Amino acid sequence: MAATIRDIKKRTGLSLATISKYLNGGNVLPENRILIEEAINELHYEVNELARGLVTHKTKTIGVLVYDIQCLFVGSMLHYLGMELHKKGYGMLICDSCNDEKLQKENLQFLLSRKVDGILVFAVGMHGKFLHAAKKANVPVVLVDRSFQDEEYDCVEVDNRTAIYRATNKLIENHHKKIAVIASNIEYTGRERVKGYSDAMNQAGLEIPKEYCKLGGHSFEHGYRGMKELLELEDRPTGVILGNYNTMLGGIMALNESGLSCPQDVSLIGVDNLPMTQVLRPKLWLIVQPMETMCEKAVAMLLERVNGEQNGMPVKISFSTSVREGDSIRDLG
């Protein structure tokens, strides 16, 4: 028979009120906390989260909306978010929007119906109107990786514009003048990266032919198609910036199929030091995002809102990236 709160009372000699206060997240005397925790372990007592939620109006569950769960960057971020939430005593309910804004809105309603305490959002697009329902329900939201053009929410991201500015400059420092980019232009992160590329090219006085900008979505297919088109140009680029991890994998496959080689024929620099980059040869130059740190900060920001510790205006935290050196850039000097 499952242990009850009365069994804990009998084991500890404490009042039901004190035990209930502890179980519902309240503060009790340190010596009482030790007695209760020992009794819980000895009796294998399991907290009824549904019942506790009725009392505290908290479910200890955080919703996570992702734009595409197949994206390896998203998968890695979910790993770090799950670890951090577990440390804080929270569970995670994940909804995949499959890069569909209509589904994203439906997923939000699903999470709200499950009474999640807060929501972490990897948004599909650049508009935040769909989150008005969360605001109305007073459910805190933190954006991760992507912010909006038209709405202000707490957000944790990297400085994407500066990151790709530096990537482009790395090619320029190695005397490349014909530099192309394969990136997204349908969401905030991709657009910021394209701006960084343009900033560096313009500052160096280098031409940006229209056919050197392969813009679409951050996907394997777009990377593959974009690289194929670049390599078929009569005046092909000597260096290519691959705007995210999936795009990078697609671009490398197209390069391998072409019979050309890196860096002898085309120099490459990509984004994100995820598992496949460890086995690719040559070793790639990479822009590396501090994914674990981003997730820790996103969880901390959200729980501050959930627990009423932060009630001010939306806060945006932008982390710097680092560079992993490789062998994929040829010096043309």
Automatic annotation (TrEMBL):
The protein's enzyme class: isomerase
Lineage top rank: taxon: Bacteria
EC numbers, comma separated: 5.1.1.1
One Pfam family from the record: Peripla_BP_3
Residues in HTH lacI-type domain copies: 3-56
InterPro entries noted in UniProt: HTH_LacI, LacI/GalR-like_sensor, Lambda_DNA-bd_dom_sf, Peripla_BP_I
Coiled coil: none
Name under which the protein is recorded: Transcriptional regulators
Organism: [Ruminococcus] torques L2-14
